Amino acid sequence: MSTQETEPTAAQEFAVPVSDRMSDLDFLLGEFRVEYTNLVADPPATGTAAWTTRSVYNGHVYELLQSVPEHGIEGRWIFGWSASTSSFYGLYHDNWGNHSTPSAKGWDEDGRIRFVGDCFGFGQQFVTKEEFEVVDEDHFVKRSFAQQGDVWVPSDVIHAYRVK
Asked: What's the rounded Cα separation, in Å, for the pair 13 and 67?
């Protein structure tokens, strides 16, 4: 090594470049007004929430902050790409103690991306499926399901509208 070259720092030596796959989730970035329908309630209940998503950790992760003032729920989604599993990973947790760890391979042929994984919600353990569909650049839909045996039971439908 010449006298002008320097040893790489640990951060430079071990840092992994941000995956191009993160752009698959760019539809989540920004501030959204959310309208939800809780299909578990009888009768189904509707309400509003706010979601704000930003890129964090040099673009390796997207962080979605959720606020549902009517029920006092504050939650956080983390989304990232794992090169080791060639899949997206997610982590959800909130101030009610609900949490989930779903993952997704990517967009399906039907234009949806489905995050599936273990969930502990409202005092119960189950497998959840969070299905995202982009309607246009300012609107996406998230449909949630809980697995009961071989059946996926719808639990909510959320429409997210970009705040301009």
From this structure: 38
